[in-house]
Design a protein that fits this description.
Residues 58-140 form the DUF4283 domain. Helix content is 22%, strand content 34%. With 393 residues, the protein is α+β, with helices and mostly antiparallel strands. It folds into three domains: 53-132, Alpha-Beta Plaits, CATH 3.30.70; 146-224; 230-362, Endonuclease/exonuclease/phosphatase (Deoxyribonuclease I, Chain A, 4-Layer Sandwich), CATH 3.60.10.10.
Length: 393
């Protein structure tokens, strides 16, 4: 391979038909010095002291490492994503350590701590994991294997709120780190709240089990505080789609969404990452009824749907118990509503298990139930009463 070397203005350039590496002008870099090293086992081995790294450790204390779970987006994409969501945070630099693994340095420590506290964001419906940098990390081989997550333990008996009990209970899920101040001060006893370093891979249980002081097995539901979606503040038309996640709901119905069929996947990917969903959309009708559920909690089978109802069979994963649920969004006009009532009557003839009917019927059973000044006609009252009477017969 022919190589031509030229020296010009302090810059060494090596040219070939394949590569052109360049040595930057030394005046632009940091001046270095020779430091004598000792021989050990016949080799020269340098010794780095704490004083040698203190300044750089302090410099990188403002940094976090990031990766997208089960994805390796290009640097330019992540750079645009981070700049889009940074808000009021002052970002100094965004660096790619290796494929799928990034280092972000903030202008001050407060911004780094605020971002680290939030923990998980979402990129293209996949978790965008954020962890604070520390000097023990080997960036070239580091992977985010766990993340501190706030976990709620609803209705945990107050006798288990001591540090020893909470440490044992929290260790079921991961490495317990601390409680929040309300749990520490015992001023809100609706639930205990623990910060636990939880492995990202593997099954996350919806309930925990432990033996109490009398040897009795106690089973308690737990609820990890779910992260907010980055897009939730820029899509007010969805309301707060993560209310279901924050309140630990596992099966919900959304009514009057009026979402076009071609936008289904885009909306659900942002609003319910990790959930499954169905709706009553057709190519000609915007979906007015949506249902969404957490697959680790329920199995849902849609048995019947129309422009006004979605009728489902739900199986609870942990108990294997089944029940039926029908979500309703009734039309405004009398003639349009009639098919819905006929569907419900037909369904009622075959019910042998628990059946729950939820939704907006645009109807009341008694005039006194009506709020506002609009006049309610006897027809609407009769429709509701007829169905109730039919169900009791």
């Amino acid at each position: 391979m022919a190589v031509q070397e030229t020296r010009q203005a302090g810059v060494l350039t090596i040219e070939s038909n394949r590569i052109v590496p360049r040595l930057v002008d030394p005046e632009e870099g940091i001046n270095l010095k020779f430091v004598s090293t000792k021989f050990l086992y016949g080799k020269k081995i340098a010794k780095i002291n704490i004083e040698d790294v203190e300044a750089d450790i302090e410099y990188w204390q403002n940094a976090v490492v990031c990766s997208v779970l089960r994805a390796n987006p290009p640097y330019k994409i992540i750079q645009g994503f981070v700049k889009h969501i940074r808000g009021a945070f002052e970002i100094d630099k965004i660096l790619q350590v290796r494929k799928g693994f990034f280092l972000i340095r903030f202008g001050n420590l407060q911004d780094k701590l605020a971002v680290k506290k939030r923990g998980i964001y979402y990129f293209d419906a996949k978790p965008f994991l954020v962890m604070g940098w520390n000097p023990q990390m080997d960036l070239q081989n580091e992977n985010i294997k766990s993340l501190p997550i706030w976990v709620h333990l609803p209705e945990l008996d107050i006798k288990f709120w001591g540090s020893d009990s909470l440490s044992k209970i929290g260790s079921i899920l991961g490495i317990p780190l601390k409680t929040d101040k309300y749990t520490r001060d015992k001023v809100m006893i609706k639930y205990a709240r623990l910060l636990i370093d939880i492995p990202l891979h593997g099954h996350f249980p919806d309930h925990i089990e432990f033996f109490n002081e009398d040897g009795v097995l106690v089973i308690k539901r737990n609820a990890a505080k779910q992260p907010l979606h980055i897009a939730d503040q820029s899509t007010p038309e969805l309301g707060n789609p993560f209310l279901a996640l924050d309140l630990s709901w596992s099966l919900i119905g959304l009514l009057e969404t009026k979402i076009k069929m071609e936008n289904d996947r885009h909306i659900t990917a942002r609003a319910f990452p990790g959930w499954r969903w169905k709706n009553n959309s057709t190519p000609n009708i915007k979906g007015r009824v949506w249902i969404a559920w957490q697959p680790r909690m329920h199995e849902v089978q849609v048995l019947q749907k129309s422009d006004q109802i979605m009728h489902c069979c739900v199986t609870q994963v942990f108990t294997n118990k089944k029940f039926y649920i029908t979500f309703v969004y009734e039309m405004n006009h009398d003639q349009q509503r009639q098919p819905m009532w006929e569907d419900l009557k037909a369904l009622s003839q075959h019910m042998t298990k628990a059946w729950c009917i939820l939704g907006n019927f645009n109807a009341v059973l008694y005039k006194e139930d009506r709020r506002g000044s609009n006049v309610i006609h006897d027809t609407k009252l009769r429709e509701t009463a007829d169905f109730m009477e039919y169900g009791e017969s």
